[in-house]
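Sequence in, structure out. Go.
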Amino acid sequence: MQKPKRRKFRQETVIHSYIVRPLAQEFVMAIWNTNITPNQVTLFRSIIAVFYLLLFMYGSAISFIVAIVLFEIAEILDHADGMLARLKNQCSKLGQYYEYITDELFAAEYGPLGFSVAYGAFVFSSDVIFIYLSMACIMLYYFVEYFRKIANSVDKKMGGGTKVVTTVEHDHEDMLRIIGVPLKQGIVNLIKTIYIWRNQLLFLGLFYLIFFGKFLLILVFCIYIISYLREIFKALRSGYLIWSKI
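Output:
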């Protein structure tokens, strides 16, 4: 097998472009000629994830910092397993499903990650508002998914054509038709930045909690809630448009 070549990565966030992806590439170059499989890398990531969730929930300044470091290590492995799978031509539906489940369980703000951060913030600050905000995020997210599935299911039965868009890149088309040209790119970039940096914003809120207070972390959870409410409105509107064609 030919040794892989290093390559540059497209700009995402500073952390991903200059730390996470390059380190993932170096890790893959170190193990590409061994018997380690992509699924084994994903499994190791899952084990690390269990530890950082527990550390977030412990609720001390030191445990927060260690948990964030472990999270970034898990992010490196998250990128590495895909790189290794493509390099070894070991891509499979099982591996993709396994990685999807791992992402949902350990790297999403609406899942155990968000709740563990919220619970740790509650332990640290004795303020139950973090639990309420986290539960609101989780419930609203699954409301979004429920309404999307209903709308897409009805649309599929009707032959398609009104599919509810779920990717952030296509999430602003209606807005672009309304707002002016000078503003639109800046607003879209801001929304994309918030989306891409969503976990980093959560961790930034934790650092702010450690040294200054609760405000920033509460604000981050509120941003999540507002984004989910907007998605629910979009899904309901799409469902209404579909039903109006019946």
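Check: The chain is about 75% helix and 0% strand. The two ends are 56 Å apart (CA to CA).
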